[in-house]
From TrEMBL:
InterPro entries: GAF-like_dom_sf, HTH_MetabolicPath_Reg, Tscrpt_reg_IclR_C, Tscrpt_reg_IclR_N, WH-like_DNA-bd_sf, WH_DNA-bd_sf. Residues 55-239 form the IclR-ED domain. The keyword Transcription regulation applies. The keyword DNA-binding applies. This is IclR family transcriptional regulator. Pfam families: HTH_IclR (PF09339), IclR_C (PF01614). Residues 1-54 form the HTH iclR-type domain. Keywords: DNA-binding, Transcription, Transcription regulation.
Length: 241
């Protein structure tokens, strides 16, 4: 049941859950009530749909520390940088921001600064949007705080941020164009541990005109490369456990 809740949009109705698992509605409801009591599952009071609870999500983030996440994804980060031609960052949530635990330079001769240890805003970066999208507790806290405007494109309204996070969950990746820095864009996808919990994100960043098309949408080829890298890291984590 937890694996089911970790897939797709992350919001599932009782009938959908019961039918997917071949359970009677009463049985499924009883299991969900038990999981709710230990805060592994939450129910949306408005829609009645179920999602993973904050307690389980926070348990997942303690599964890997920053060094382990970096060591297990470093090879895939190098490959992504080579394929995309862009710089690659791997991040995880720490103290209300994105902590960059690994950074691969863009494979050219330009001057670049190592970003390991940098703290990036959750609401204005693709890495941050991924982390917010899959952690209801974290996203709720973010919506209650002031969303700092960093550029004229930065999302500063909680309602708009929630719409974007819903899109992220639906499509399985996040993007942003000039929301964090003018002229820059980024694309990211979730890294999961066994069971489907999101514990980090991997993404690329670079010039907006190289990452986005004329309509400002992330280029499909780059999105596929980022998603494939995230899936490769996730598969390696599953295989090792």
């Amino acid at each position: 049941m937890l694996r089911l809740l970790a897939r797709g949009s992350g919001h599932h109705g009782l009938t959908e859950i019961a039918d997917s698992l071949g359970l009677a509605r009463g049985t499924a409801h009883g299991i969900l009530r038990t999981l709710q009591r230990v805060e592994f599952v939450e129910q949306d009071p408005g829609t009645g749909r179920y999602r993973l609870g904050a307690a389980l999500l926070h348990l997942g983030t303690s599964y890997l520390d920053a060094n382990e996440l970096r060591s297990r994804s470093i090879n895939w980060a190098d490959t992504l940088a080579a394929r995309s031609g862009q710089e690659v960052r791997i991040g995880m949530h720490h103290d209300g921001a994105v902590l960059v635990v690994h950074h691969v330079f863009r494979p050219d001769d330009s001057v670049q600064t190592l970003g390991i240890g940098a703290m990036l805003p959750l609401h204005a970066t693709a890495l941050g949007k991924v982390l917010l999208a899959y952690d209801p507790d974290l996203s709720a806290a973010a919506r209650k705080r002031e969303l700092t405007s960093l550029t004229r494109r930065t999302i500063t309204r909680a309602q708009m941020l929630e719409r974007v996070l819903t899109e992220v969950r639906g499509q399985g990746w996040a993007g942003e164009a000039e929301e964090y820095m003018p002229g820059e864009a980024s694309i990211a996808a979730p890294i999961r541990i066994p069971g489907g919990l999101v514990i980090g994100a991997i993404g690329i960043s670079g010039a907006a005109d190289r990452l986005c098309d004329s309509a400002g949408r992330p280029r499909a080829t780059l999105v596929r490369q980022v998603v494939q890298a995230a899936e490769s890291v996730t598969t390696s984590l599953v295989d090792e456990n």
